[in-house]
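Consider what follows.

. . .
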Amino acid sequence: MGGNICTTDVRKVVEEKLNAKVTVGYGSTETTTAACLVAMTDPDEKRLNTVGRPLPFVEAKIADVVTGQETLINEPGEVWIRGHNVFLGYYGEEAKTREVLTRARWYKTGDVGTMDEDGYVTIMGRLKDMVIRGGENIYPIEIEGVLNTHPDVQEALVLGVPDKRMGEEVCAWIVLKDGSHANDKDLQEYCKGKISHFKIPKYFVFQADYPKTAIGKAQKHQMRELAVKKLGL
């Protein structure tokens, strides 16, 4: 499995159904694949809920998205990676290279994450997908994790849509299971007590599918455009 975040629920299902232990790695083309890795000997809590610790030849830190300073333990920020595994730059694209590589050779991944006191990294999603509602930073993966546990939901994806008063509002794109009839009120009620009230989606788009890339990743920018049109925003 690869190409996107492997959620805790998916990892648990794989272990239960396939009777196989899951180990998770984290990296990208720019980091020559793995930069962090969960060890098979790690406690289940770490193995199922994090992407592990940086490999021996890798440095990782969580940086404030505005200042670039390292954040406090368990405080969200952008994941930065440094090491001899990190690429030299994008061929023929110096401007793009300067956007993601600092002078100190830190690669700015564009992913939001945290690092705990033991050095384990948790990935929360893409920085570009973060919803900023009334000054609050909202990470879609947390809301998706709740909605995807609803018995009528096949798949839930969360994105931000424009709002004149709040800047952005939370919108959930829902693919229901066959024969299911859950509506927005049902799902809002289901979220209560599971996530903070300001993270509960205001808008819902119910569709049979959603735009994907050739490798199956959700194309949230297209979804956002379609949601805005469908909701009349």
Notes: The radius of gyration is 19 Å. Residues 82 and 106 are 5 Å apart (CA to CA). The chain has two domains: 8-124, 130-231. Residues 130-231 form a domain with the GMP Synthetase; Chain A, domain 3 fold (CATH 3.30.300.30).
